[in-house]
Specification:
single chain, 118 residues, mainly alpha, Serine Threonine Protein Phosphatase 5, Tetratricopeptide repeat, 6 helices, 57% helix, globular, disordered C terminus, Protein TANC2, Ankyrin_rpt-contain_sf, Ankyrin_rpt, repeat, ANK repeat
Length: 118
Amino acid sequence: MDRPHFMELHLKVMWQIVRLLLEKRADVSICDKNGCSPVYGASQNGHTDVVDLLVQAGADIHLATTEYGSVPLGIAAAKGHTETVQRLLELGANPNHQNKVITDCHIIIVDYTHTTRL
């Protein structure tokens, strides 16, 4: 199986697993030991469709208790996941959120400037 088809299959399976967990009332507000919520994890990996599923189940798009105060929008921006950033903004994410170091808007600008110089 070539890589694009494998990734497509992987994403479909992951989406189905998340849907099944939500049907069994999985807690969408729980954070792991690093302070990452399910929306944070989906945003970090650019899984916009999973973000939508979680939000439909009542997840907070601002929830994360990471060491640096990062939120889903900031991590999606830092990882370059444009579609996820756009969706989080549509859902009301605050582009002026200030973590302990920098605002999410600055993350977007710094990352964009850095990658366009390469």
